[in-house]
């Protein structure tokens, strides 16, 4: 929305002629899902509706911004690929480079939203607002959350105070940082949280407010802007009672470049898995310790693991986001000695 700012939390609509132009890049997901039964929130077809269908059902957007919409993909986000990440990033950077575009919104499925958001957070070449939104209930369901989430996302993207914060996630009236947000429920509309650090702000009734700035490097501060080419193979393994070393050994033989381990507690590792990961490091594989717990920090050098075995601590990055950062680092040719400092900065 083109706004007259009277304070950092409040804005008022200007004339239609002054409304900003917001690009919507649609990728499918539950927000575009369809089911023949409005009472069912499972068993629907994700991505069945196109972006024009979403816009047709939300005429209120015309009061917020001029919309430029395109369908980048039409899929269930459980099937997201690294190639599509790069396609979205390339298109997003091209759209944001247009002088008349004030910001962008990406509609996405919830299953891999946090991974896509973090990849774009690290590769975005703009200070303009970028907001990802989604839905936990399909578009055809009773009380679908998608329309309000999309309206709120456009409000956030159209507000100048959203600039310079990297990629944002607008869900359930809340605004989260792409680095911090994770999905925490299989069904609840308030499924997305930012453990430890909390949300960035909120949006309601066209009002947008922020209570903090992201502190880690992102977007134009990132050394991964415009990263192109095939991403190296990085996989996630887990530590648990009775774990075998077979997955690690098999992945190393398959040519994996990096491994992120979802350890117990503070990234601790079963002794069998620890031996396998140590052998992987000796063969040139980068190993990052994360945690399967869901919140908290994996402290560097817990029980002297990292110095002794040349492991890297993920800090408070969960395993699947740690994988994103490690892939980009290895693609960029970052030497092993710099990897820990990278995880400390991003």
TrEMBL record:
Belongs to the asparaginase 1 family. NCBIfam families: asnASE_II. SUPFAM superfamilies: Glutaminase/Asparaginase (SSF53774). Keywords: Hydrolase. The active site is at 30, 110. Residues 21-214 form the L-asparaginase N-terminal domain. Coiled coil: none annotated. Gene3D superfamilies: 3.40.50.40, L-asparaginase, N-terminal domain. SMART domains: Asparaginase. CDD domains: L-asparaginase_II. Residues 234-343 form the Asparaginase/glutaminase C-terminal domain. This is L-asparaginase.
């Amino acid at each position: 929305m083109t706004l007259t700012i009277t304070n950092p939390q409040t804005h008022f609509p200007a004339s239609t002629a002054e409304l900003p132009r917001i690009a919507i890049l649609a990728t499918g997901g539950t927000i575009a899902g369809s089911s023949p039964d409005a009472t069912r929130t499972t068993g629907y077809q994700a991505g069945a509706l196109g972006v024009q269908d979403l816009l047709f059902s939300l005429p209120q957007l015309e009061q917020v911004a001029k919309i430029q919409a395109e369908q980048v993909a039409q899929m269930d986000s459980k099937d997201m690929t690294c190639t599509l990440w790069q396609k979205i990033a390339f298109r997003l950077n091209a759209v944001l480079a247009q002088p008349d575009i004030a910001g962008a919104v990406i509609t996405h499925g919830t299953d891999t939203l946090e991974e896509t958001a973090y990849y774009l957070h690290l590769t975005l070449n703009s200070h303009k607002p970028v907001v990802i939104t989604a839905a936990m209930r399909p578009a055809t369901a009773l009380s679908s959350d998608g329309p309000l989430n999309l309206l709120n996302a456009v409000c956030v993207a159209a507000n100048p105070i959203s600039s310079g914060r990297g990629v944002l996630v607008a869900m359930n009236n809340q605004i989260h940082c792409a680095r911090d947000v994770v999905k925490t429920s299989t069904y609840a509309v308030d499924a997305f949280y930012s453990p430890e650090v909390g949300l960035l702000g909120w949006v309601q009734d066209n009002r947008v407010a922020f209570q903090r700035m992201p502190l880690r490097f992102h977007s134009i501060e990132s050394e991964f802007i415009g990263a192109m080419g095939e991403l190296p193979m990085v996989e996630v393994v887990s530590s648990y009672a009775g774990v075998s070393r077979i997955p690690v050994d098999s992945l190393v033989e398959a040519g994996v470049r990096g491994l992120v381990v979802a350890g117990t507690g503070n990234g601790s590792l079963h002794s069998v898995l620890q031996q396998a990961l140590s052998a992987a490091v000796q063969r040139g594989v980068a190993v990052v310790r994360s945690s399967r717990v869901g919140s908290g920090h994996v402290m560097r050098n817990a029980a002297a693991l990292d110095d002794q075995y040349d492991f890297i601590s993920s800090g408070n990055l969960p395993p699947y986001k740690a994988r994103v950062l490690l892939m980009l680092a290895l693609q960029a040719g970052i030497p092993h000695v710099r990897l820990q400092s990278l995880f400390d900065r991003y």
